[in-house]
Amino acid sequence: MRLPFRLTSLTATVLGLALACGASAYNARPKLVVIIVIDQFRADYLDRYHDQFAEGGFRTFLDHGAWFVNCNYDYANTRTAPGHATLFTGAYTIGHGIGANEWWDAQKKRMVTSVEDDKTQLLGISGNLPGASPHNLLSDTLGDELKLATQGKSRVFGVSLKDRAAVLPAGYAGDAAYWIDHETGTWVSSTYYRADLPAWVKEFNGSNRTTKYWDREWKDTDGTILGTTAHRKTKKGAEAGFYDVVGPTPFANDYEFEFAKELVLYEKLGAGETTDLLIVSLSGNDILGHRIGPDTPQMKNMALTIDRQLAEFFTFLGHQVGLANIWMALSADHGVSPIPSYAKKLRLPGENLNDEKLLSDINAAIGSKVGSSATAQYVKELDYPLAFLDQTAFPSRMKEEDAEQAAGEAMQKIGLRGYYTRSQLAQGKVPPSALGRKYLNSFSPYGGWYVLGVPAPFSIGGLTGTDHATPYTYDTHVPLVFYGFPFQPGVYRTAAQPIDLVATFASLLGINAPAAATGRVLVEALAPTSRSPGTSSPDSTPPKSKSSPENSAPVPTGGSH
Questions:
Q1: Rounded to whole angstroms, how far apart are CA atoms 119 and 114?
Q2: 160-181 mean pLDDT
Q3: Both 133 and 282 in a single domain?
């Protein structure tokens, strides 16, 4: 229930101290940690639409929580899989290994995804299809450490439309990760977690929940139609699936939250003797953003609708668990570049590049360099600006570092600003600069021979839409906000990174940080806590860097203690 009065500053401080002193994962204080990841949600959206957010959604964090406005990823490979792995391992790719959404597998001679696992099977749809697991992670996660600390008693779940955005956050020991079949919208999982779907998931899938999201008009508050989920055909004549039609609309988030609410209810999250963890990654923002960019009425409405959806979800959590019993955080896996045509209107050097021509030109340039066939596919896949090489295409006498250097020089010749080879990164041979560090942090042992190109700002590897995967702030700058009694409400302008999220939660929960974690505890936003029993003075209060007057923001309310 909601507290019947507004807490005074003194009462809030005393209550916050009491709860912080007794908080730990071992005694279910808090009962539940909820982490929201919004795929492709730029940090500046929170400022851009701040005055249009209603009470209860984003303002739960912005007015009543700790808001770190200067949070940036310190690596260059700003993609979905690396971003989610980074958020929950507290390490960059050099620590957790996930360097891309997919990469070239020299043995299978094809691209493989970051989570596909031939040793598992997909649950939820017919057919003997490979499942997914976190087996490529080189570090454990926050959820794994929570499981270790509580002898497996804590419950850990990941939910997203995308497999990588559910599997990697849930970690090795997660109770389950759930994502959707792109064609039907059916919720699926993998035999990695269990032999069959729980009865409640089967019931959810069997009750045709997707039907109400089809054939709807997406309108703004003025009634202007922004999109539709009407059935349509693909360019090849097939029926377009749920992910492609419903995915780029706010209805996709409604569908995710509908599933997440039932998960909380049926899995009884927050009702155990230890702290539980729920991760919800909202994918719709990214599906839409790639198509139309960040500066459109649709993206604005998407952000404002997410605000309402968060408010409804938090109200649900308040009724089920009590917001006083929950700690929350919100962040993103990456940002996004403006649409190049929009950048050009502002006289910025934006450009949509023909990725097929880029690939052809790079291969031709490599061929002329190594003295072999000009038509060979030296670069097997180009995920701009990342090139995966086919080592069998190069002369047998050629060493990896020489082949990668030839490819890098070819990439630079056709317009990239520079390059870093896998061999170079593996040896740590980067310039002692901020950019060099970002690329070193992007090193992965997966993908065979590869080259990370340095693109020009606002250049996109595709003739339409926009993208991310650069070291620039429009891709690295993401939100980082916390809510709960340990956090002193305010705006914090100290430098922060997404890797700090798990370091902070691990410290507050009294558990180890993940094995490869390198983030710091964000002490400037934490309420002071008492010393060990027998001492009379509290720990020194961390410096305040709030933009608002001290203690002016209300404290979290909403549940019994």
A1: 14
A2: 98
A3: yes
Among 249, 244, 256, which residue's Cα sits nearest to residue 310?
Answer: 256
Say how far apart CA 337 and CA 472 lie, in whole Å: 9
27-75 pLDDT, tens digit per residue, is: 999 999 999 999 999 999 999 999 999 999 999 999 999 999 999 999 9
Question: Residue 511 to residues 23, 158, 161, 441: CA-CA distances in angstroms?
Answer: 11, 20, 30, 25
Q: Is residue 326 located within the same domain as residue 429?
A: no
Residue 16 included in any domain: no
Pairwise CA distance, residues 337 & 232, whole Å = 28
Phi, psi of 257, deg, nearest 5: -65, -35
Q: What is the pLDDT of residue 560?
A: 32
Q: Is 224 left (phi over 0), alpha (psi -120 to 50) or beta?
A: beta
- Please report, as a single letter, which amino acid is at residue 214: W
Beta-carbon count within 10 A of 368 CB = 13
Total tally of structural domains belonging to the chain: 2
Do 499 and 382 share a structural domain? no
Q: What is d(CA 76, CA 376) in angstroms, rounded to the nearest whole number? A: 29
Structure tokens at 144: 């794994």
Reported as a pLDDT band with limits 50, 70 and 90, residue 529 is: low
Contacts of range 211-219, beta carbons closer than 8 Å, 24 or more positions apart: 213/185, 213/242, 213/246, 213/251, 213/252, 213/254, 213/255, 214/242, 214/245, 214/246, 216/251, 218/249, 218/250, 218/251, 218/301
Burial of 201 (0-12, 13-18, 19+ CB in 10 A): buried
Q: Is residue 15 domain-resident? A: no
DSSP state for residue 180 in the 8-state scheme: E
Answer yes or no: do 456 and 477 share one domain: no
Assign 10 a pLDDT band (cuts: 50, 70, 90). very low
Could you check whether the bond before residue 385 is cis, i.e. omega within 30 degrees of 0? Answer: yes
Structure tokens at 311: 């408010």
Q: Where residue 419 sits, what CATH number does that domain have?
A: 3.30.1360.150
Domain boundary residue, one of 401, 436, 460: 460
What pLDDT digit, counting tens, does each position of 474-496 carry? 999 999 999 999 999 999 999 99
pLDDT of res. 532: 44
> Is residue 550 in some structural domain?
no
Residue 487 resides in a domain: yes
CA distances from 293 to 6, 122, 153, 243, 467 (A): 41, 33, 43, 18, 8
**DSSP class per residue in 101-170:** SEEEETTTTEEEESSEEEEEEEESSSS--EEE-STT-SS--HHHHHHHHTTT-S-EEEEESSHHHHHHHH
What is the domain extent for residue 38?
25-336+473-509
Q: Say how far apart CA 340 and CA 458 lie, in whole Å.
A: 6
Q: Both 241 and 371 in a single domain? A: no
Q: Which two tokens stand for residue 471?
A: 């070291």
